[in-house]
What we know:
The chain is mainly α. The protein is about 75% helix and about 0% strand. It has seven helices and no strands.
Amino acid sequence: MAQLNLNEGLEQLASRARTASTVVAVTVAGYLGMAVISVLEYLKLIDYEAAALTPLTMVAVAVGLIQVGAFLASIVLVAMWIHRAHENLAEAGYHKQFTPGWAVGWFFVPIANLFQPFRAMRELWNLSHQQADSPHDVAASELSVWWGAWIVGSVLSNFGSREISGDNNFELLVGAAGAVSLAVAAGLLRGIIQRVTAAQRQLVGMTDTFA
């Protein structure tokens, strides 16, 4: 029965990985689009306060709506993938620090969401790649760059959305940099999802080895 559950879990993981990867790819494009839009605003080619919206401004509004929708969808789909991936490890017999629920839940806890989600993802990566001897000490550089880009991008985007100087030129450039950083983070996350999913496929038929 455990093997059957694990097989079903891996099928679910693969399905969720495909859906999440697609939406995250759209999110990457959306962030890059928002970066370009911020630069165009800086160059005064887009003006949301103009009496009549130009075609370029309408395109910018559409890109913004798509980016927001893709981002919200990615939150749900990536959370579902993370939960299933951690559940698979539990069904494979691993002793884990993070439960599937908290691997997702830590993303929404203030302060703790600066480091706990990374630790949970590090555990997921290491155990999925059969690095069971030291699951909490080893982190692939890809994970570190992903989390660093996410933190930097979030901070820059937050500052970019605030009125810091007398005009908004500085904020626009900071926002553009933040969007690029978030695009890098989303692109790396997509790769992590695919790599972990591929690694977990090797769990089939090897459950006893990990118990």
